[in-house]
Design brief:
The protein is mainly alpha-helical. The protein contains four helices and no strands. The protein is elongated, with a radius of gyration of 15 Å.
């Protein structure tokens, strides 16, 4: 079974890695920010779980069609981040 790197490294996986880096940075500097970075953790953890869930569902529904996986995930990531910005920011 030969799985392409494009299938493994999909947009949701890249977005999850970026969110994880932000969570690690927020956790590392929580004391120096006097607790303000706790908001990054509060908002980041559910966002990370949502992105990972979207990735799992899309890959289960769209088997081995890399272009379609990328297209659907890019659109859903854009929608999630737009809604996140509208409701949080």
């Amino acid at each position: 079974m030969n799985i392409s790197w494009k299938y493994i490294l999909s947009p949701c996986v890249i977005a999850a890695a970026v969110i994880l880096i932000g969570l690690i940075q927020s956790a590392a500097t929580i004391k120096s920010s006097q607790g303000w970075n706790a908001l990054g953790l509060i908002y980041g953890i559910p966002l990370l779980l949502l992105i990972i869930g979207i990735d799992a569902v899309i890959k289960l529904l769209v088997k081995k069609k890399i272009g379609l996986v990328w297209l659907i995930e890019l659109i859903l990531i854009a929608v999630v981040f737009f809604l996140f910005k509208e409701f949080v920011g």
